[in-house]
UniProtKB/TrEMBL annotation, chain A:
Species the sequence originates in: Salinibacterium xinjiangense
Organismal lineage: Bacteria, Bacillati, Actinomycetota, Actinomycetes, Micrococcales
Record flagged with keyword Oxidoreductase: yes
Protein name: Pyruvate dehydrogenase E1 component alpha subunit
Keywords from the UniProt entry: Oxidoreductase, Pyruvate, Thiamine pyrophosphate
GO molecular function: magnesium ion binding; pyruvate dehydrogenase (acetyl-transferring) activity
Keyword Oxidoreductase attached: yes
Automatic annotation (TrEMBL), chain B:
Keyword Glycoprotein: no
Pfam families: Transket_pyr, Transketolase_C
Keyword Cell membrane: no
SMART domains: Transket_pyr
Residue span(s) of domain Transketolase-like pyrimidine-binding: 4-185
Single annotated GO MF: magnesium ion binding
Name listed for the protein in its UniProt record: Pyruvate dehydrogenase E1 component beta subunit
Highest taxon of source: Bacteria
Residue stretches in coiled coil: none
Cofactor requirement: thiamine diphosphate
Keywords: Oxidoreductase, Pyruvate, Thiamine pyrophosphate
Length: 327, 342
């Protein structure tokens, strides 16, 4: 791997800390009723998210899924409008009409998170088609989970991306559970090996809690895509710490407590902090990053608190580009 | 003006749109070989007019048979700077992509607070009336009318097929075009220069004062034929073709019925929750006092389409079934029992 600049390393840790702090706060806010509905946190998956999003350029595209906050944060979206969106405020990044499941920030190439498993994969594929036809050098990445790896539209999209050599990365966030269902009980074979059937490289990142391992794998895929060599499937093995969604209490213990303990020992933020310390970052500097992330989340909540709820008329905007078409 | 068929008018509109804007691309099954006759010079592939030769493989793309992937990719491409025309061939194939139509194409602009625009056209042909059996014979536009966020056109003439398609391509919202295979060979004089038929504006196919018939797609020529027959008996029938179903030209329909006081609605789709049901409800809600007779719908029954020619031909509105409905609303005696759709 290429030697990364200190600023890049620092930014990786900061973005992982942002995601952790944002989602820990969001979890509390759901439980206190300050966020309506529920949220799906990325706590535990920060390395996988940040390693992938930072391998992309700001102008590159991505689509996401129901575990939805980490992607735009990782891509560099400001926290205030994201938090306001979770609460349903007028200043939300989608004006309060999307909510947690439908965050999108086109300013940073975030083409939208999706509540339907697998549904946003072809959206990124289409963005890659745009890049190819317009020859603008952009690449696109679709985030999807191990659950979505069993949706047919993934394979329709991989086939099209392969046959058209699209600048596309299929990024499988394999956190090993589709809600309560262990992936290996519903998934035949190895997900990354399915790439061979479409004539594209399939990469499995076993050390998915290592942000640099993810970054290197996705950077190689981005380089291939940008060089015109077509799509790549990258499967990252990771783990979510929290329940599928916040507030969900299942009667069955579908996850082994020992398993969770083992994963907690490989916490991506702790691991990367140790690495940064070994690279000469001071304890003071590393504490400072944590403080910065917490302060940004405090500011995001304050921004949301100070924001009004949307005017009722907003419910009737944005269906079409012209108001006249609304019946 | 030049004589064009419905199908060649669509081809002309696609050629004009491709010439006008480099962001317009055509993707779909078999578009490179011009199998359906809208990506070539004329009825068949010709060297001069062939789209693949004219625009190249970057902008004319055969797709795999993967409707969900195609529709989603077209949506993603539209959100990032292209203006795709997607040829989905048969309308029944749209069901394969229902998640993408309903959850992505229709919702993205709204869910994302207006950040997305979705300039994409999805064309498909309704192959009914051609003895292709139940899988190819659907007229599914009403179920898409039930999805806010989509615009829907159903041209009934060559000129409208050309002009509406240009407006659809220029629209920054997703447009579904439902074309009737039965009308493909219809010919009329069409302006060979560029023109646009605006979305949401109905056409008065025939003026009249006693009865309004609102007719959709292939029911339009049947309604006009019925009107001409009734004229011989002194009944003056106005035929309105909405052309665009979403947005619907409500005012044109209401104005006509307010004038005539009688309404027959004819369409080839199923009866329950069809466009005819919506138009009937609109008139009943808005101008009930103007009505001098009950509204009559002439539709396909809530039945699947049988294969045998002897069975299928009774399933859709015809000149005879529309004429019978007109006779009922003006209190003329029925000529003969009409077995077909009521």
């Amino acid at each position: 791997m290429a030697e990364l600049a200190r600023d890049t390393l620092r930014e990786m840790q900061l973005r992982m800390l942002r995601i952790r702090a944002f989602d820990e706060r969001a979890s509390k806010m759901v439980k206190r009723g300050h966020i309506p509905g529920t949220v799906h946190t990325s706590i535990g998956q920060e390395a996988q998210v940040v390693g992938a999003t930072m391998a992309l350029g700001t102008g590159d595209y991505m689509s996401g899924n129901h575990r939805s906050h980490g992607h735009p944060i990782g891509k560099g979206s400001p926290l205030g409008p994201l938090m306001a969106e979770l609460v349903g405020k007028a200043t939300g990044v989608c004006k309060g009409k999307g909510g947690s499941l439908h965050l999108a920030d086109f300013a940073v190439g975030s083409l939208g998170e999706s509540g339907i498993v697998g549904s946003s994969i072809p959206i990124a594929n289409g963005a890659a088609l745009s890049s190819k036809v317009l020859n603008n050098g952009k690449v696109a990445l679709a985030f999807f989970g191990d659950g979505a790896a069993n949706q047919g539209v993934l394979y329709e999209s991989m086939n099209m991306a392969g046959v058209w050599d699209l600048p596309m990365i299929f990024l499988c966030e394999n956190n090993q559970y589709a809600l309560s269902t262990p992936a290996h009980t519903v998934t035949s074979g190895i997900i990354s090996e399915r790439a061979a059937g479409f004539g594209m490289p399939g990469i499995r990142v076993e050390e998915g809690q290592d942000v640099l391992a993810v970054y290197d794998a996705v950077s190689a895929a981005v380089a291939r895509a940008r060089a015109g060599d077509g799509p790549t499937l990258v499967e990252v093995i990771t783990y979510r710490y929290n329940e599928h969604s916040e507030g969900l209490k299942l009667g069955t213990d579908y996850r082994n407590a020992d398993e969770r303990e083992a994963w907690l020992k490989k916490d991506p933020i702790v691991l990367f902090r140790q690495y940064l310390a070994s690279q000469g970052f001071s304890e003071e500097e590393l504490d400072g990053l944590q403080a910065t992330a917490l302060a940004e989340v405090d500011a995001a909540v304050a921004f949301s608190d100070a924001s009004p709820y949307p005017d009722l008329s907003v419910a009737f905007d944005d269906l079409y580009t012209d108001k006249e078409s609304v019946a | 003006m030049t004589v064009m068929s419905y199908l060649s008018a669509i081809g002309a509109a696609q050629r004009e749109a491709m010439d006008a804007d480099d962001r317009v691309i055509i993707i779909g099954e078999d578009v490179e070989a011009n199998v359906y006759g809208t990506t070539g010079g004329g009825k068949s592939r010709s060297i001069e007019g062939d789209f693949l030769q004219r625009y190249g493989k970057n902008r004319i793309r055969n797709t795999p048979i993967s409707e969900e992937g195609i529709v989603g990719a077209a949506a993603g491409a539209a959100m990032t700077g292209l203006r795709p025309i997607v040829d989905l061939s048969y309308s029944s194939f749209l069901y394969m992509a229902m998640d993408q139509f309903v959850n992505q194409v229709a919702k993205n602009r709204y869910m994302f607070g207006g950040q997305a625009s979705m300039p994409v056209v999805f064309r498909s042909a309704m192959f009914y009336g051609l003895n292709t059996g139940a899988h190819h014979s659907d007229r599914p536009y009403p179920m898409f009318m039930n999805v806010p966020g989509l615009k829907i056109i159903a041209p009934a003439t060559p000129a409208d097929a050309k002009g509406l398609l240009r407006s659809a391509v220029d629209s920054d919202d997703p447009v579904l075009s439902f074309e009737a295979c039965l009308l493909w060979s219809t010919k009329e004089d069409v302006d060979e220069d560029e023109f646009w038929v605006p979305l949401g504006v109905a056409r008065t196919a025939r003026e009249g004062t006693d009865v309004t018939v609102v007719a959709i797609s292939s029911s339009v020529p049947e309604a006009v034929a019925a009107a001409e027959e009734l004229a011989k008996e002194g009944v003056s029938v106005e035929v309105i073709d909405p052309r665009t179903l979403v947005p619907l030209d409500r005012n044109a329909i209401l104005r006509s019925v307010a004038k005539t006081g009688r309404l027959v609605v004819a369409e080839p789709a199923h009866r329950t929750c069809g466009a005819a049901a919506e138009i009937s409800a609109l008139v009943a809600e808005e101008i009930f006092d103007s009505l001098r007779a009950p509204i009559i719908r002439v539709t396909a029954p809530d039945m699947q389409i049988p294969f045998s020619p002897s069975l299928e031909k009774q399933m859709y509105p015809t000149k005879a079934s529309i004429a019978a409905a007109i006779r009922r609303v003006v209190d003329l005696p029925a000529l003969e029992p009409v077995a077909a759709a009521v």
